[in-house]
Structures are given as structure tokens and as C-alpha cells.
Amino acid sequence: MASLDVKILGGAGVPALIAGAACTLIAAFVAPPAGKAVIGGVFATIVVIAFFSVGQVVLGRTLRNNPQIAMSVALVIYLAKIGVLFVLILLFADTDLFNTKVFALTIVVCTIVWTISEVVIFARTKALTIVPGSGPGNPDGIPDGNREKDHS
User: Fold this and answer.
1) 11/93 Cα distance (integer angstroms)
2) Domain map of the chain by residue range?
3) Which partner for 16 in 39, 53, 97, 114 could form a disulfide, CB atoms 3.0-4.6 Å apart?
4) Can you give the pLDDT of all 152 residues of the chain as single tens digits?
5) Residue 53 to residues 86, 114, 138: CA-CA distances in angstroms?
């Protein structure tokens, strides 16, 4: 796995896990019954971390294999994740297995934390996207150090 993937999975996964744990802990004291609130919070945290981790792995492979379509793939993956999470919230809206309000709130909080963490990581990461020496002053794309000099 590439170092950027590891940075994102750790740098976004850990804060999302902490946010999910915080939501679950608060819900255990605030939302009755405590057992169902904890189940809802834990389930939501696991779902968000699993979905977003799988999306990052798919995006990382796309970046390595076909970087030209990376932005399109990233948008499709993000929309799919948000859509599936929304469907899960709707599917479990009337369940008695866990507290659905805690489930929905934890999904939203973990998703926001993951997304903000991911944006911060991308903003801080310096990735070389332009080959030095291939700019407009160098139309053939050969870096200046590799060019044969005309000594006439």
C-alpha cells in the first residue's frame, strides 16, 4: 500500500474512530436505553470506517494504475459511500436492535470527521505532479540538465 494511502487510512481513520467512540460514550449516558445506544454507536462507527477505508483502497489502486481518471473515480466513490450510508440510515430507521438516532448521528459525525481529516492530509501532503523542466519554456519536455548543448 502506498504511503499516501497509509497516511489517509491512519490520519482519517483514527480521528473517525475517536469521534465514533465519543458519540457512543455520550450516547450511553444520554440516550435510553444505554445498551442499545452503545450498539448503535459502535455499529455506525464500524460501518463508516469500513466504507471509507474500502473507498480509499480502491482510489489508491486507481491512482497507481490509471491516474487520469482518479478524480472521476474519487467523486463516484464518495457519492456511492454517502448514498449507501443514507440507504443504511433509511433501512434501519424502524429497527429495535439499536438506538437509531445514535446510529444516524454517529454516522454523520464520523463521516464529517473522516472527510475533514482527509482534506487536511491532502492539503499538507506535497505530491509532485509536474515534471521539473517540462514547462512552457521547454517544449520538448527534456529537463535542462539532460539536454545536449549547442556550442556553436
Assistant:
1) 31
2) 3-146
3) 114
4) 567 778 888 889 999 999 999 999 999 999 888 899 999 999 999 999 998 898 888 888 888 888 788 889 889 988 998 888 888 878 888 888 999 899 989 999 999 999 999 889 888 877 656 555 655 665 555 555 555 555 55
5) 17, 10, 41
Instruction: Give the separation between CA 131 and CA 129, rounded to whole angstroms.
Output: 7
Q: How many residues does the chain have?
A: 152
Q: What count of other Cβ atoms lies within 10 Å of the Cβ of residue 121? A: 16
- What whole-number distance in Å separates Cα of residue 105 and Cα of residue 22? 12
d(CA 122, CA 127): 9
Q: What is the pTM of this model?
A: 0.75
